[in-house]
# Entry
Amino acid sequence: MNSPEGGGTAATGTGLIGSLQSLAGTVVIAVFVITFIVQAFQIPSESMENTLLVGDYLLVNKLCYGGRGLGDHLMPYQKIARGDIVVFHYPVDPHQHFVKRVIGIPGDRLRLVNKQVWINGTPLREPYVRFLEPPNNMFRDNFPRLDSIPAIGLEGKWWLEMKKLVEDGQLIVPEGHYFVMGDNRDDSQDSRYWGFVPRENIIGRPLLIYWSVQNWDSEHSTSASFGSKLYHFAYAMTHIFQITRWHRTLRLVN
# Structure
């Protein structure tokens, strides 16, 4: 006859194995979701203001445009469209992630005149754009200008490539590439300065601002030391209700 103690040990062991299996399953699902479905992303600069602000934390939908494989013909994936906000690997340094808005799609003929974007001879309506300065930068505001080179920010490789793609004062977007710009048009390092985004570099489309925090670092940061970072973390945890932008948290991105 089995003793009561023995039965209890078996039950405890079975429960532990079940818990470990459940934990492993949760980890596998989480890894799958992070790898294939969504990815967290933090807005690091002002280039997309006022659509996206520094301190916005996004969930990026990595499935919306498909995986560029055979399954894309079977699933109802979206095509990358003009006006979409996309997260992508920065072509100059693929380890960096950028977020911009698609302005030109393959086959488009694009130009800017006094900051107004023209696509295929038609002015583009852009209610999301923010302007800070009057038109005074010939390269930035009247693009493409082959007779005007900005003092800083222009990639040399792009300058040479761009010359081959300009026809009648318009930049022709090649197949499999996209021209992107920031909504904060006067303060954005974008396709005007470093070129097109290849299709394979595009990760997905921002879906949701799951948290937004106002800029408090400048008031509470004096160095990048470990002690300073620890202080920042403690401050954020104890002032989370004060630093959170509640009106932006859980907002859909469009």
